[in-house]
């Protein structure tokens, strides 16, 4: 049995995940917590990381590779960006070393799109892309990465050519909690209403300009015709995802369909949404992709 | 000089306005407060109204006509709806009398659109429409009524044929206060950035499906290229208004242009937005319109 070779960390805005990995890429231990960038900025990044390293009994010499918002200006150490067009292998050549630490800790850079009409940034998704597509990717891919800030990425022969961020997840969160629509979804249980969701996806896809009207419709419908809070919640979710898909699918779609990098409930919702529009998807698990991307990068950096 | 003939009240979700009016329709006194439906539901509608009536020394016998959310199910007394197609004069025939009050207090109904694919409701705007267009309106009008929940209304020969609510104002409020974009607009001063606003209106009008991407762009642009919080704020506002206009203007626009019923800063912003798209508008002051609508209704109900 192999001992640990390195530690991989996906450090997002609001979540922290750590894996202890051996030389063969096998996971020996895993940690998950809510100590994302926002929480760690208060508690101290070094202290948060050390507590999890201690919990998995990581040896003192073991190197750590981090991706995500820990490398933002407001994070631990700013890790810069690779600019588009961005070859994915360039990411692992620009890892920033955290200064003042005995242990070798590096943070992967993000990708920046310095275009005046479509400025955009990603941090963390570049590592998922690396894991999803590999270091030697060929051909064209249109990658949909749902989340708080969904990314749609065009990759050609392993180079990120263009991408767009949609704040779909964050909009769903504030719209369902902080607006008049919170009255319509209050008390929604776990039950799903797939018919409401798919109908909302299709309506929003066909008339994206009406987004703010379709959202309000969830409440009007309840006032005039009744309907469950779950139906209203799925209508909000379907409307916002349908508008995102109208934009994401507005260009050419590769023959293989859309590469969907997602996990859990989001993966399920987006598969339903693409299905409502009869668009083929090639699904890839997002959790696995980021771990694989970190492993590829760690192997390239420390296993020479 | 005439004595007071009636009291007119515009009782919205978050605002209360009262006018003491004489037989000739002249305003003798005015009151404005934040005691809208939400506040009054706690303090008691009768008590809030009485305090303002006392402040303007309204005689005990003076009748009171109310429009707006005070007539909602969650308001004072439910005033029902006139269903579309809704002739504006029908509104003043369905005023609901508040029971248990010695004084004659009536609340005007709203308008409901009981269509399965586009259910919608309004309360208060029907009275603005009455004031803006009059009891004997002829011809076609496309009316834009900006607000927390903007309404776009098609009126033909004095009958409301169809309308759509867009939660543009509420979206601007939660997006600029409760999302990551709050970082981009923090510290925005009163200064306006008209160029940013107009550019955002045009971009969103041309690609409404990209709304959630254009919003996020306000932050990416600041990260990569700098820019003031005011520019970011106007970009958010322009994006949301541009998407609304893409929907509102998607049908036929009457030769006379769009009838814009708005006041203050919103009137200014929407005039700029229509100007950016070279669409002609006929502006009507919203405050005056609602007072005129209430006066028309009061005259019809009590001056026979």
Automatic annotation (TrEMBL), chains A, B:
A GO molecular-function descriptor: 2-dehydro-3-deoxygalactonokinase activity
Annotated GO biological process: D-galactonate catabolic process
Entry keywords, A to Z: Kinase, Transferase
TM annotation in the entry: none
Signal peptide from the UniProt entry: none
Matches recorded under InterPro entries: ATPase_NBD (IPR043129), DGOK (IPR007729), DGOK_C (IPR042257), DGOK_N (IPR042258)
Presence of keyword Transmembrane: no
Gene3D superfamilies: 2-keto-3-deoxy-galactonokinase, C-terminal domain (3.30.420.310), 2-keto-3-deoxy-galactonokinase, substrate binding domain (3.30.420.300)
Pfam families in UniProt: DGOK
Name this polypeptide is given: 2-dehydro-3-deoxygalactonokinase
Organism listed in the record: Bradyrhizobium centrolobii
């Amino acid at each position: 049995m192999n001992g640990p070779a390195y530690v991989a960390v996906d450090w997002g805005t609001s979540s922290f995940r750590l894996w202890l990995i051996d030389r063969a890429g096998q996971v020996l231990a895993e940690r998950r917590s809510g100590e994302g960038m926002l929480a760690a900025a208060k508690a101290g990044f070094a202290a948060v990381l050390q507590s999890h390293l201690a919990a998995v009994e990581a040896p003192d010499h073991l190197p750590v590779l981090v991706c995500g918002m820990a490398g933002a200006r407001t994070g631990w150490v700013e890790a810069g960006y690779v600019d588009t067009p961005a070859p994915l292998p360039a990411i692992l050549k620009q890892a920033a070393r955290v200064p003042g630490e005995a242990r070798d800790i590096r943070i992967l850079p993000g990708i920046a799109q310095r275009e005046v009409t479509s400025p955009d940034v990603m941090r963390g998704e570049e590592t998922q892309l690396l894991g999803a597509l590999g270091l030697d990717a060929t051909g064209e891919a249109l990658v949909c990465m749902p989340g708080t800030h969904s990314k749609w990425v065009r990759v050609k022969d392993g180079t990120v050519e263009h991408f767009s961020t949609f704040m779909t997840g964050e909009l769903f969160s504030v719209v369902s909690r902080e607006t008049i629509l919170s009255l319509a979804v209050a008390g929604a249980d776990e039950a799903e209403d797939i018919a409401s969701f798919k109908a909302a996806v299709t309506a929003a896809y066909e008339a994206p300009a009406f987004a703010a009207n379709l959202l309000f419709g969830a409440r009007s419908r309840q006032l005039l015709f009744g309907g469950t809070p779950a139906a209203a919640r799925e209508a909000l979710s379907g409307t916002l995802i349908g508008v995102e898909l109208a934009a994401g699918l507005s260009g050419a779609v590769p023959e293989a369909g859309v590469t969907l990098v997602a996990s859990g409930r989001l993966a399920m919702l987006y598969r339903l949404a693409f299905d409502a529009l009869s668009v083929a998807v090639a699904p890839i698990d997002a959790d696995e992709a980021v771990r694989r991307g970190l492993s590829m990068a760690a192997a390239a950096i420390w296993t020479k």
